[in-house]
Write a structure and sequence with these properties.
Purple Acid Phosphatase, chain A, domain 2, globular
Length: about 280
């Protein structure tokens, strides 16, 4: 009975408290080829919102999260996928909150594996595609720009950087969507340009980005750190080489956000986060 009581208390803590303890994870990143006009450029990365897990009386926590993001005064906000659990209908009613996200260079988003309605087994492929279109329409109604294998040029003082957004590309499981078209997404981008890639699944970095491109910074999510972490260890580390925080390969950097939401409405140790990434020029 003592063991059962402890488990119940842990479950209640993870459900009612820990999964809403949003953390601000700040990192300063230095690049030798960042245009000088972008010194101090601040990006807030939001990932894995899984909005369906906030239904049932927890909508005010989404408002708290939006307020926290805006308080960081970002130049750009990026969302790196998995806005829903199963389908676009979960976004109904959230426009008044999510449209409040604001930054001078806007809000850019990509799709994660859960955003393709693949886990609603009864839907036909045509219905899944229709649901994706509806999800993108929702995001665009929030004022977000959803990148579907596309890029955006951001300019400062006659210089620029590119934000490249690809669709989901997962390698761990055969059923993870593989829709990224990096060549299409980089249309008009040159080798000498400073590039930031948004790709939901961090396995994409090791397979297709490292040593195959010169993309300087990649931002991913997906892992949630297993929603369970003790003394810096999570069982998700058995499956993913890159699952939380910063990873380096010479001049290439990957940041894996453990996300702000929860697919299973519970977190313990792996507190939900937003990532504030400040770019600097230098060696």
């Amino acid at each position: 009975m003592v063991i059962i009581l402890i488990l119940v208390l842990i479950g209640c803590y993870g459900y009612f408290w820990e999964r809403f303890r949003f953390q601000v994870n700040r990192q300063d990143l230095t690049f030798s080829d960042l245009p000088a006009a972008f010194e101090g450029y601040r990006i807030v990365q939001l990932s894995d919102l899984h909005i369906g897990s906030f239904s049932g009386g927890f909508e005010k926590e989404v408002q708290n999260l939006v307020d926290l993001i805006n308080q960081q005064k970002p130049d750009l906000i990026v969302f790196t996928g998995d806005i829903v659990n199963f389908g676009s209908d979960e976004l109904k009613g959230y426009k008044p909150i999510l449209s409040q996200l604001s930054a001078p260079d806007g809000v850019l988003s990509i799709l994660g594996n859960h955003d393709y309605a693949l886990y609603r087994r009864k839907l036909t492929r045509a219905q899944q595609k229709a649901d994706v279109k509806q999800l993108v329409a929702y995001e665009r109604s929030f004022g977000w720009k959803t990148l579907l294998n596309e890029n955006v040029k951001i300019e400062r003082d006659s210089t620029h950087i590119y934000i490249i957004g690809v669709e989901n590309q997962g390698y761990l499981k055969s059923y993870f969507p593989k829709f990224a078209r990096l060549d299409r997404a980089m249309k008009g981008v040159s080798e000498s340009d400073f590039k930031i890639l948004l790709t939901h699944d961090p396995t994409h970095w090791r397979h297709d980005i490292v040593d195959k491109t010169n993309i300087q910074l990649t931002l991913s999510g997906h892992t949630h750190a297993g929603q369970f972490e003790v003394f810096g260890w999570s069982p998700v580390s058995w499956a993913y080489d890159e699952w939380q925080g910063l990873y380096y390969n010479d001049d290439q950097i990957l940041n894996v956000s453990i996300g702000a939401g929860s697919l299973i409405p519970f977190r313990l140790g792996a507190q939900p986060e937003i990532n504030v990434l400040t770019l600097h020029c230098g060696k």
